[in-house]
Batch of 2 targets.
Target 1
Amino acid sequence: MKTYQLLTKERVASIREVQKNPSQALRGVTRVMRGSETLGFFFSNEEFNEILEDLEAAACVDLRSRVRITRAGLKKTALRSVEQLSARYEL
């Protein structure tokens, strides 16, 4: 999950809302605030698992190496991106 996508899903809840009705206030990705101060974040199990998966992929040396090689190939036009193939074959 890209950071931007994560931030677009973010909800904001005051600490009072969380105290009154936590099951309604805490859904998906929620920033818990007191006034203008962020106290913390709540992540649903689904969101948390997606973040962990992204972090594990980012930590994989083999994956990073393959991405680097692929990107270098795209710059040299040895490889074609999906967008290039779609345009070429009018898909």
Note: The first strand starts at residue 10 and ends at 14.
Target 2
Amino acid sequence: MKLFIHNLEFEAILGVLKYERQNPQKIVVDLEFRYNYDKQKKDYIDYTKVAQNIQDTIISGKYKLIEEALIACELSICAIYDIRDLKLKITKPNIMQNCKVGVQL
């Protein structure tokens, strides 16, 4: 089974610039991963909990580097869920006027 969350939007302190440290900015997260679903056991992953975990990790971390936030999210998700083939992307859509920037795992 494949779970995906696209365009998870929230505001967080993330960045090294002075105004990024003082003002939350819009963050967009996309993720996908595979997991084993057992219909008999009703073994599923609650995507609302995954989304909340990602949001809580980034907001509480107040990371300077987007790479640090990405790794923290990866470690948090992998510690909770038995998943494989994780694809994770964090985007800062408003930091530059002419493009969106981010990192992807």
Note: The domain at 2-104 is CATH 3.30.1130.10 (GTP Cyclohydrolase I, domain 2).
